Amino acid sequence: MSAALDSPGRFDAGHYAALAGLAERATLDFVTLDDSFAAEPGRPDALAALARIAPLTGRIGLVPTVTTTHTEPFHTSISVNTLDWVSRGRAGWLVGVSATEAEARACGCASPRAASTTWTWSAAPSRSPC
Known about the structure:
The chain is of the alpha/beta class and 130 residues long.
């Protein structure tokens, strides 16, 4: 079982640590924290927030949403690996996909990728994240 820590408008690590601690005491398996490239004031970076509270928890899995549509694979792997290291092997990864023009623009792209190509793997990927 899991719980979402999503708390719009909250940026203090103590709030997220308290929620994760409560979930851990309730013997849940993991907690999630949503994230995206959309400009949404009032939401912390999921990877950074969970990396901050990782040392304050001891058993529960920490699973951030990591949007991969416009992100180079090495950035994603390094970020999730850092969370895994600071949590001593308790990191997970909820794959997020950008679908809006606002998210594409936030990454310097003119428009979002077509849905038909978003979930298609290619042996020779484009060098551009757009």
